[in-house]
Amino acid sequence: MSILLDHHAPNYIVNNRLHCDSMLKKAFFYTIITSCLLSPVMGDAKEPNAETRKLLKQMQEYERQIKATNERLRELEQRESSKLTPDINDNSLGGINGSIKNSNATAVVQETDTAKKRNVQDEPDLEDADAAKVPKGHRLGGFYDNGFVLKTNDNRFSLAINGLVQARYTLDLPSNKYTGKDSQGFDLALGRLFFSGTAFDPNLSYFFFYQSSTLNNNNTVQTIDWWGKYQLGNLGIKAGRILPQFSRQFYTDIGKYLFMDLQQPEYAFSLQRTPGIELNWKSGKWNSSFTVANSVRALDSVTQQNVGTKLAGIGRIVYDVLEPYTYVQETIPDNVDKPQLSVGVAAGYNPVDANSGLQNTVAGMDTYTFTGDIGYRRNLLSAEGAFFWRKDYNSHSLVPGTANSNNNGWYWQAGYYLVPKRFELAGTVNQVTFDHQNGSSYKNETVGSVGLNYYFYDHHFKLQTDYSRISGENWLNNNLEDNRFRLQGQVYF
């Protein structure tokens, strides 16, 4: 006899009990009838005849079946009672503090060899880690934690995958012929795929990502950052194609900006990605870094290798006056209870090996750049500002009086949440001034912008829009005026 028990087992027991009660009643009824029929014969007979012996044997068999059935029923009731009364702390049995993992499972109660063969159930062809004796430190587990993550239990190996998509619409309406023509269009401002994690040691991390964009009439796919880092206590050593810690905004996650793009002074003065080595040190409220690298190229240059023997050197120090105003994001879609305030300074020497219109530099020039910044955040308000100054030495200049030049820029921006976690008002002003023409299309430029940001799901899914008034002068002292409207949607996982 074989009985299958599942999550409807209580109904089965009730039905089985009713069936058993019916059998008992029938057996009792047959026993009474048989007793009445046999009583005269048994009273008169000295020796039971063949028919009497047959009826007695049937009665004994009925009694044996009734006894066996009662014992089996009690056994089933005890077994089901133990299964259906889980410990409240036992997650494996679906207790109160756990999920009911066995609610759809089917247990097999087997009695005979025939029943065992008949009730064999197919199992999924999955390798059991315990049975396969896989070391616990080498087992993989996957989940989403600000990215799709795979890692071993001992954290020696891990991989996180993130993605960013920014789709943008831009409308330009210049006010005069010196600025350009009216235009509008759609762009993939940025499409990025990030990979990061640890290898062999939780202190040995890696990071790299690919980027695609159609801005500036391009259609490119590039490898951007690619580095490895080893952490020794408070000291971190990073090598590869890295983004030196120079300016605050360039080092911020681009998916978490207050506005949808960098401030113009960042394009003009920042020392950004280049192959090299960087040391980071953190002690209390102090953070510092020092980088030695190839000549740092501007964003409009694609070269990487040094022309000569000169190397770039960049150093930065940040002090957290209050709670740290981190590099991670410029705006937080939530109320910040404790005020955050940090100040930072950085300086860099760069032997220029490639011409740049964005930075107004030419190959062979040596530049010395200084920047200072401040960031403050409290409750629903975020604000930050920065100043840049750069000294250029161009020994190859053929124009008298242009061998040395001083250039500067600054920006200030602020954001305030009109509706916490949802609706944010933003404003900014920035300016860039160049001393001599070395490739830039303008002599000075000032940009004032107001924007509105709506957060559907934090920075993971948001909509940004801004209007900008852009003014300045070209090298012929002609006025440059532009009105620009932008709308951008972002998905970030």
Q: Quick gist of this model?
A:
With 493 residues, the chain is an alpha+beta fold. It is built from five helices and 20 strands. Helix content is 17%, strand content 45%.
Span between termini? 56 Å
For CATH, the homologous superfamily of the largest domain is named as Porin
Radius of gyration: 39 Å
Strand order in the largest sheet: 5-6-7-8-9-10-11-12-13-14-15-16-17-18-19-20
Strand content: over 45%
Q: If you had to describe this structure to a student in words, what would you say it looks like?
A:
This protein is α+β, with helices and mostly antiparallel strands and 493 residues long. It has two domains: 3-118, no CATH class; 169-492, Porin, CATH 2.40.160.10. 17% of the residues lie in helices and 45% in strands. It is built from five helices and 20 strands. The protein has helices spanning 9-44, 50-83, 113-118, 248-251, 264-269; strands spanning 3-5, 107-109, 140-144, 148-152, 158-174, 183-199, 201-213, 220-232, 235-242, 274-283, 286-293, 312-320, 336-351, 366-379, 381-393, 404-419, 423-433, 444-457, 461-473, 479-492. A 16-stranded antiparallel barrel has the order 5-6-7-8-9-10-11-12-13-14-15-16-17-18-19-20. A two-stranded antiparallel sheet has the order 1-2. It is elongated. It starts with a strand and ends with a strand. 23% of the residues are buried. Residues 1-15, 36-46, 86-112 and 114-126 have low confidence and may be disordered.
